[in-house]
Each structure stands twice: as C-alpha cells, then as structure tokens.
Amino acid sequence: MTYNTKNYTEQGGEKTIISGELNIIEQGKLMFNGEELSQALYQSNSQATTIAGLVADFNKLLVKLRSAGVMFSKAPVITILIEPEDVIVTEGSIEESLTVDATVSNGSELSYQWYSNNTESNEDGTLIEGATEAVFDLPTNLTEGTIYYYCVITAEEAPDVTSEVASVTVEGD
C-alpha cells in the first residue's frame, strides 16, 4: 500500500511546512540547524496496515517534529498593505520618498531591502546599500529619465515577499 502527501491533503489533512536544515552526520547523529536532535525525536517505522493507521502514525511524527521546533504547522505570511507608488520628480530638487507597509502573521520583525532597476521589473535589480527601512528617500542626484524601484520584505520563518514596481520619472528643471 502506498500513500502520499497529495492524497493526505486532499482528504483534509493539514499541510505542513518544514523549515531548516536537516543533516545526518557521522556516527548516526541527526542534526537540525546545527543542533543534535535527541533520540526522543526518532520515529520508528510504521506498522500500519490501513490508511487510518498510517495517518495516525504520520500525525504522531508531526507532533514530535513540531514540539522539537523542527516543523511549523503554518508558515507565517507577509502581507503588503501599502505598495510603493509611481512618482514624478524634478531634477535638482528631489525630496520625495517611496513607502511600503506590511505585516506578518506571526508578529515577528520585518526587514526591508530596496532595489533599483533599469526595466519595469521586480527581479534582478541592483541592491541599494543602506536602503533597509519601509521608507526609502530617493537619491537627490537622480538625472533625467525613469528609474524603477521595488522592495523585498522578509521576516523570520516567512517566505520573502516582493513589492510591486514603482517608477520614478525624473524631469529636467
């Protein structure tokens, strides 16, 4: 009899996310994020002969992994509340800024990193050193043309979220 996660979740099972680095190293030690896991976390092979028995064994393993901090039942979710908006500025008198506002479901601290790009894309941009706040003050020395900016938001245990692209159009004075 075989069983897979897809069938388990289709039958109403909870989807679980494992976060961290699990390694088996010499002498049979099981390591997670650099710390040795105790023998209490080891799970014997299932002797189940029915789907219900297999699900029960699987759920026991999940409880052990969650209590050890190896697995979380749901990954935290970052939600962007305010996206950065397009702006038109005048060369030589730039005082504007871009803003992004977000929350994370587990209440952990958010981190921000702004990027610039020559194309209207929120991928493969250039990291802006020191631009690590929710508000990004535009450089005052921008020259005529259009530059695109976006922000990558991170939080502990949550998948990163990338803002929409904001265009900054610099007009001559």
UniProtKB/TrEMBL annotation:
Please indicate which superkingdom the organism of origin belongs to: Bacteria
Q: Which residues form the Ig-like domain?
A: 76-169
Descriptive protein name: Ig-like domain-containing protein
Q: Which organism is it from?
A: Candidatus Syntrophocurvum alkaliphilum
